[in-house]
Amino acid sequence: xxxxxxxxxxxxxxxxxxxxxxxxxxxxxxxxxxxxxxxxxxxxxxxxxxxxxxxxxxxxxxxxxxxxxxxxxxxxxxxxxxxxxxxxxxxxxxxxxxxxxxxxxxxxxxxxxxxxxxxxxxxxxxxxxxxxxxxxxxxxxxxxxxxxxxxxxxxxxxxxxxxxxxxxxxxxxxxxxxxxxxxxxxxxxxxxxxxxxxxxxxxxxxxxxxxxxxxxxxxxxxxxxxxxxxxxxxxxxxxxxxxxxxxxxxxxxxxxxxxxxxxxxxxxxxxxxxxxxxxxxxxxxxxxxxxxx
Length: 293
Fold this sequence. Notes:
By secondary structure, the protein is an alpha/beta fold. It contains 12 helices and 7 strands. The protein has one domain (3-290): Glycoside hydrolase/deacetylase (TIM Barrel), CATH 3.20.20. 41% of the residues lie in helices and 13% in strands. Strands 1, 2, 3, 4, 5, 6 and 7 form a 7-stranded parallel β-sheet that branches.
């Protein structure tokens, strides 16, 4: 049994899920979508990309919404810049010796070069700078998670966990038994077990709605809900409003707009209610972790 279930008052067969919106602040359309979806109330958490051009606008928007009890914002730890014509780089450095910048001074577009070249100490400095910038902007940061799952690598997972420990924040990471971590060295799995003993909530399951086909979004969400196992899960979406900017930026914009519409769909709300899953946000996990004895 995942120990976080009992801490939250659930039994061992409970299916607990965070319905999470990624990439807030990547573009204007993501920020405007967040504000509307927060009010609608299906989305239970989100994370912002501090190095991105629209982060200041996102921070301003979060500040305006700070009295909403549903607000739940983490830092989407960013070490990649995936689009061809819309790029961003590091907060902490422009030094190529960091290992995570390409020839143009931006983050690499893909995870693999980052994982192969990034220096762990530089990664820790960069992720620390991202969290500090979010806190300085007045954001009550609820958690950390990872853009493009880049930190799921033996060299990058330890600095990610150290940053989470430094700020006493839960970090999205899977339990050591998960099949995605099967090839991780024993030392990294030991880091995870130690983190869980300190009260860090670890996840049993992760899924994200497909970004390759925008059709049948409601049916795909139903399948994802049906597939949730007992334990703690994260189900990730990438909602944006339709805009000229997002169409120019992202080839998968139709899927992102479809996620936005899904989070405004009363049928999806009813589907969640009928599924028997318990929807929570990261704030509940942060409170449980900080109250851990």
